[in-house]
Amino acid sequence: MLIAKNQVRVAVLVLSASVSTSWAAVSPETQTLDQLYQSALKEGGEVVVYAGGDTPGQQDGIKQAFEKQFPGVKLNVIVDYSKFHDARIDNQLATHSLVPDVVQLQTLQDYPRWKKEGVLLDYKPAGWDKIWPAFRDNDGAWTGVFVDAFSNVVNTRGLTPEQWPREAQDYLKPALKDKIVLTWPNDDDAVLFWFKQTVDKYGWEYVAKLKAQNPIMVRGTQAPADDVESGKALATFSTDGSLAVDDKANSRFVLPQHDPFVSWAQRAAIFKTAKHPVAAKLYLNWLLDKNTQSSVWYMWSVRTDVAPVKGYKHIWEYKNTDPQAFAKFMSDRAAVERFRSQITLYFGEVTGEPSPGWPGLHPTQALAH
């Protein structure tokens, strides 16, 4: 009996040591971007990213900046609604036909599940300790790569600063009737979460009053930004925008002072079976590099050592947004679907073609645009 107990103790110690060694082995990347770049060239010079978004060319700025810095490495970014990309990936995994090396989506609930299923590579890019802890998985299975936020975008030519809607109740003013553009909330979970927070504060009466404003309903969150910029609509709260003011633009991103707004860190991960693992690591390291976080993305950085645009605070310093709340909302799918069904009673079923087009089951490059 004593021998058996000793054997158990030894087994436990060996297992503990194994787990500890395995976890410790996943340390932050030590190679430089140039070293990874040279290795990526030898690997074949290509990386495929499935990215959540609204139009085929929405990630063109990222693609151009990456390929300019790393000539000879092709970045294929295929954009689709995150809710279609995650289904596409699940199907590819089930049929052993996985295409992307990197997945970068708004469906935050997928990452813990994929980690549990063992399909994600534990990897920590350089500068790991500078990423806000809440924006990264402890084991490196996934990491936030940029902060997005949905709030007010207003047409500065059609509205004076005093008329800009900032708080939810401002959208109920008679002057904005027929002049608001909205993404279908039952089509996009981030927009749905804006409504969830607003209903929690103001009740379902607010939704009925907003519907009576006869908003223009569109698919995707790029269209509201475009419609406000063009003057087709005067305001929206269902898109993001640049924090830096562009005096040449007709629209501006404006945060509320009191009401909640939606913010989250878009997550990215590398698949264990990635065909281009080195180029995938190059991409993640570049995307999280301090210079890239400072100069390429137009909203907030996930890094603690990158200062926000002048006039703004770090996203986690705002009292009227919780950048972790959206992930919590997304994780309870039954609750999400119950709320979505109720919202549909007010706005009706989603209509219109998907704004990114139909990439198909196994897209390897962006649709023509």
Overall description:
The N terminus is likely disordered. The protein has 369 residues and is α/β, with parallel strands linked by helices. It is globular, with a radius of gyration of 22 Å. The strands form two sheets. Strands 1, 2, 3, 4, 7, 8 and 9 form a seven-stranded mixed β-sheet that branches. It has a two-stranded parallel sheet with strand order 5-6. 44% of the residues are buried. α2 packs antiparallel against α9, α6 crosses α7 and α6 packs across α12. It is built from twelve helices and nine strands.
Short overview:
The chain has 369 residues and is an alpha/beta fold. It is built from 12 helices and 9 strands. Helix 2 runs antiparallel to helix 9, helix 6 (189-202) packs across helix 7 and helix 6 packs across helix 12.
The helicity comes to: 25-40%
- By DSSP, the count of extended strands is 9
First and last CA, distance: 72 Å
Global mean pLDDT: 94
Order of helices and strands: HHEHEHEHEEHHEHEEEHHHH
The low-pLDDT segments are 1-23
The rounded Rg comes to: 22 Å
Number of helical elements: 12
Structural class: alpha/beta
Topology:
Elements: H1 2-25, H2 33-43, E1 46-52, H3 60-69, E2 74-80, H4 82-94, E3 102-105, H5 110-117, E4 143-155, E5 181-183, H6 189-202, H7 204-211, E6 216-218, H8 222-230, E7 235-239, E8 251-254, E9 262-270, H9 277-288, H10 290-295, H11 325-331, H12 333-347
Parallel strand pairs: 1-2, 1-3, 5-6
Antiparallel strand pairs: 3-9, 4-7, 4-8, 4-9
Helix pairs in contact: 2-9, 6-7, 6-12
